[in-house]
């Protein structure tokens, strides 16, 4: 696969969820491959999440067409419980992973 090839997003590493700081911080992470760079959206249930003082989102290009995708939630409370999903999409398609 050459550098100029376009590919729909696909996960290359199984998504993981870790608790840190005695359960007060959640770290969601996954790795994916895509070209062009995918748009990333996070959801709790069906509600889109936005960055805030408590929620930080990051997409870092690790090499070529591969990306590490992270979301950290700090100050976790019972209200943060539920199912989460990440959606990665570009003009060629999209992929979804659930937590």
Describe this structure in words.
With 99 residues, the protein is mostly beta strands. It has a single domain (7-98), classed as Immunoglobulins (Immunoglobulin-like, Sandwich), CATH 2.60.40.10. Helix content is 0%, strand content 65%. The protein has strands at residues 7-20, 25-35, 39-44, 47-48, 55-63, 66-74, 84-90, 93-98. The strands form two sheets. A four-stranded antiparallel sheet has the order 1-2-6-5, with no helix packed on it. Strand 1 and strand 2 form a beta hairpin. The radius of gyration is 14 Å and the shape is elongated. The model has no long low-confidence stretch (mean pLDDT 95). Residues 9-97 form the Ig-like domain. This is Ig-like domain-containing protein.
């Amino acid at each position: 696969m050459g550098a100029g090839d376009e590919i729909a997003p696909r996960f290359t590493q199984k998504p993981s969820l870790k608790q840190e700081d005695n359960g007060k911080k959640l770290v969601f992470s996954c790795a994916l491959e895509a070209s062009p760079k995918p748009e990333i959206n996070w959801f709790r249930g069906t509600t889109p999440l936005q960055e805030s003082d408590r929620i930080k989102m990051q997409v870092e290009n690790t090499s070529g067409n591969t990306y590490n995708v992270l979301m950290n939630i700090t100050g976790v409370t019972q209200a943060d419980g539920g199912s989460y999903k990440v959606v990665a999409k570009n003009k060629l398609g999209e992929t979804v992973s659930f937590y």
